[in-house]
Amino acid sequence: MGKCYLCGHMKNIRNFCVIAHIDHGKSTLSDRLLEFTKTISERDMQAQALDDMDLERERGITIKSHAIQMYYQHDDGETYTFNMIDTPGHVDFSYEVSRSIAACEGALLLVDASQGIQAQTISNLYLAIEHDLEIIPVLNKVDMESAMIEEVSDQVIDLIGCKKEDIILASGKTGIGIEALMEAIVYRIPPPKGDPAAPLQALIFDSMFNSFRGVIAYFRILNGTMRKGDKVRFFNTGKSYEADEIGILQMLQVPKDKIEAGNVGYIITGIKESKEIKVGDTITHDEQPCKEAIVGFEEVKPMVFAGIYPIENEDFEELRDSLEKLQLNDASLVFETESSVALGFGFRCGFLGMLHLEIIQERLSREFDQEVITTVPNVSYMLYPHKGEGRMIHTPNELPDPTLIAKVEEPYIRAQIISKPEYIGSIMTLCMEKRGVLTKQHYLTPERIELTFEMPLAEIVFDFYDRLKSISRGYASFDYHQIDYRASDLVKLDIRLNSEPVDALSSLVHRTKAEYIGRKICLKLKELLPKQQFVIAIQASIGAKIIARETISALRKDVTAKCYGGDITRKRKLLEKQKKGKKKMRQIGNVEVPQKAFLQVLKLED
Length: 606
Known about the structure:
Layout: E1 13-19, H1 26-36, H2 54-59, E2 66-73, E3 79-86, H3 94-102, E4 106-112, H4 119-130, E5 134-140, H5 149-160, E6 168-169, H6 178-188, E7 201-210, E8 214-223, E9 225-227, E10 231-234, E11 240-242, E12 245-249, E13 253-256, E14 258-260, E15 264-268, E16 282-285, E17 304-310, H7 316-329, E18 334-340, E19 344-351, H8 354-368, E20 372-374, E21 381-385, E22 391-393, E23 405-419, H9 424-433, E24 437-445, E25 448-456, H10 464-471, E26 477-488, E27 490-497, E28 500-501, E29 507-510, H11 511-528, E30 536-542, E31 545-552, H12 568-588, H13 595-602
Parallel strand pairs: 1-3, 1-4, 4-5, 5-6
Antiparallel strand pairs: 2-3, 7-8, 7-16, 8-15, 9-14, 10-11, 10-16, 12-13, 12-15, 17-19, 17-20, 18-19, 21-22, 21-23, 23-25, 23-26, 24-25, 27-28, 27-29, 27-30, 30-31
């Protein structure tokens, strides 16, 4: 019988990730691989075994990358060690995918045989090709009646230029093709390169927080050997720690005495501060450090910014704590403190997209019991004043007086949409309404067309993805990446309640859309705000100019109810008295915006 990696046999290690579009069956296929290699017993098996968040199970999506080690007993008598990283498929979590790819030599390209290639598949595939990964194409769900095996195989051949016999037909549900897939991983994915005797060089590709053990970092060793009790240094932060525990990642963490080059594992150093570990950092030995850090690891670029505030101001420190712990589990979350007149102290957070924002909000509530208020999401803009240097602005309140501004540039994206030809008309209408310009139109097959648009990122922040799905009956898939900043006619839209601006509802919008958005927010607030004892004027304004208005009438007590019959002047007197009281109340009364209203205003769908 062959020997496993523990005896230093790097030739028997295979590191690979699974890339695919959302809902193409990655988690189900991963479940079959875990069963086949007996990594998980039948008794403990459950669907989506690697998705350990309730939220992932409920929504049926992978939010977090998961690493796991399996052992495969080959017919030639050798035992192979497979380190598999299951990755998310939604466009908002592409950062998770980029980190997983950096730790692998191969990738399983998973395509749903009933849906064909979709936008996110292409985007993740290009990431894998940039890192020179060996690609194994896998057609999943081939057991379904709607599977288009021939047609989708041709799409895969066109996309990556492989031979037809290279494509593995599989089914995560029934287990078809799992053995062929195992063989392909052994023969087609190269073993890792590296020298176990060289100075230690390990890439941190993920981390998590455990309330008992502190920060647990997941790493991939490129060179050298890590032993329990070693004094290790984190290259970029320059701090040194002792490796209290190291081990490999199975369904549970399995402690080991040493881990060699080419392998994937975890390290616990007793760090309690989340700031001390940076995903993408290099771990090396304190006494014999490596000469340079591992390069080619990209920094996260948040696309959407929103303020997150505690409902009660005294919960501010607790919220900071919760966000720091969340950041360990999700390196793509960035935040800094800010304050608002309406909401007090809170945090300005950067997200990869609207789904990411929603997931963070949900996780704060479930995992940390933090109920928060989120302000209107917006993107970052480049501001060029008449005097001085250009700078980035993240909130509408940072915008100075319009007379001081030379120009404002907004971020533009290149959006790829893959759909059926019959939906081209409605997709073009939607994209043009969002200020998009069509740059390329390409038929992948007679039944699938790829449209490429250049459009402002701010336009897709709100409801673009939902509307795209509904007009294409769920067939269109969407992916995007930022290209540059372009000058634009942007204005600050203020929402006022009884002439007082509510800074949490301010937004930067294109001048042509200002009136439409202002009207919608005013109507929405009219539905959501509770009536008071006085009239509430809801106004949308650009500077001093009011562009939309709604009025919430006052709650009225019928003061004339006791007057039956008699002179009309008596009733008038009572109504005048009531009118004076209302006027006085309006001067001293202030309008409280309930949390529900803040959340609902964000969802401006038709």
